[in-house]
Each structure stands twice: as structure tokens, then as C-alpha cells.
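ok so for the tutorial part 2 we go from a plain amino acid sequence to predicted C-alpha cells. step 1 is just haveing the sequence, like this:
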Amino acid sequence: MRRSARKRLYVALATGLVLFAGGGPALAADYAGALIDAHSHLPNATAIDAYVAAMKRHNVTKVVLLGVGGAQKDDVAWITAAARKYPDRVVAGQPLPDPTAAPAASRLDAELARSGAHVVGEVHVRQVSRKIDRSPADPAFVKILEVAAKHKAPVVIHQELDASATKALEAALTAVPAATIVLAHGGESTPDVVDGLLARHPNLVVDLSGMHFQRTPALATEKGPLDQGWKALIARRPDRFLIGIDVWAARLFEPAMLDRLMTWTRRVLGELPPEAAERVAHRNAAALFHLE
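step 2 — the prediction. this is what the C-alpha cells look like for a chain of 292 residues:
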């Protein structure tokens, strides 16, 4: 190696050591603690086997399985069977396909009394791709929230926020303050909008499910850093967020893809302050869904 090249190498190494010692941009370690997937689905009756195998590889202690907003008629059967087969791993949610139907609240009341489920959903409130646009402030949905509050079961909603949807969500949160609403996928919104909602409504929790590298909006690309706006918000309000992987299609249950998704999840969590990472990774979900 030429003398000039050696000199450049020594300078680069010395600079790296100084940055590391001074708290500079050293790479964060992946989060290595307990992890609860607070939001996922099943595409068929057998997919749970591949998922549980991946859970064991990546120390995912529990998965909360939710319905797909009425899009799959066998959700209840698949989720019930998965919870029966893997009782220490699977937390069964109570699907709710028709949240604004007149008898929905009384039906949900009976189903929760029978199943003892600790979470309701995923309820599709506003999903543009499926041409679903309901209001959580609709009187029938407010009754759903009252039933859920009675059973101490949070309601997970898919609501893609625009100005009108945000206003309706705030009306629902205000109408039943005893009910906890979990806004899935960050509301497909921005950190600023979510921050305002969290500041105004203590009964709102946000899950970060489906915000992985294959989806938009994403918290991060597969190898890139955590979005700075989301990172700052989560670090400032670590008690208000859950992490979820949101697998739903059969192709996502292939072992190699599950490994990529779970590795990405731990990498992103590792960029948060340790206390915040622990809360988002499992402590918040354990408390919210009565898993402790």
C-alpha cells in the first residue's frame, strides 16, 4: 500500500473512532428483547404453522390475530383454531365485519361475552382501495365503542385519515372516552397529524403495523434508517404506540419473507431509545390486551 493511501486509511479509522467515542453516528444494535406482534391476520387455516415457526426463530412471544374487516368469511374459524393450537402464542381478536349494521352492537356484546376476546377488529372504517368509507361517529359505531368499553376490549380500526376522517375519528373518541381506539397503520397519515390526535385524546393508541418496507407509508426501507419524524414522535410518546407486522397474504408467510419482516422490525425498534423500544415492542401491547 502506498504511503498516501495508508495515511488516508489511518485518518479514516481515527475519525471513526472519535465519532464512536463521542456518541456520533455509530450503528444502533437491533432490539433484542421480547416482541409482541400486535396486528396480524391469517389468509388460510394452515398459515399459522409457518408464522409460529418464525416467531420461535425471532423471539416473537405473541401475535394478536385480527379479522380482515369482513373480507374473509372464515376469519373466526381460522383465528379460533390457531389460538387452540398455539394457546401460548396466539391472542385471538374478535372480528367485526359490519360495524354500522343495526344489530352489530348487540351481536358484539354476545360474542365478547362468549369468547372473552381482549381486542375487537380489525374494523374497516375507511379504506379507499376497497371503496369503504364509514364514519366512526355514526350512532351504530358509537354503540360498538360502548360495548367494547364495557368489556374493556380496545377496538382496532383501519381508517385512512384525511380531514373529514380525522374529524369523525375525533368525534368518536370524544363520544366514548372509556373506549380505547387503536388506529392501525398510523392512520396512513403523518407524524404531525398523529401527534395532534394523541395530544388531544388519551383514549387513542396508534399501531405501526403494515408500515414496513413493502408498504406506503413506511417507517423505513428494508435497510435504511427509521424516518426521523416518526422516530421523534415515538420517542416522545412511547406509551402510545404498538408494533405490528400485519402479515395477511399467503405470500407473506413464506419463511424467507417472514425472516425479512421480523429482522426489519427488530432493526427499526433498535433505533429507538431502549425504554421506548421496550414499550413499543411488547409492554404496551401486554398491558392494553391484558396479556400480563
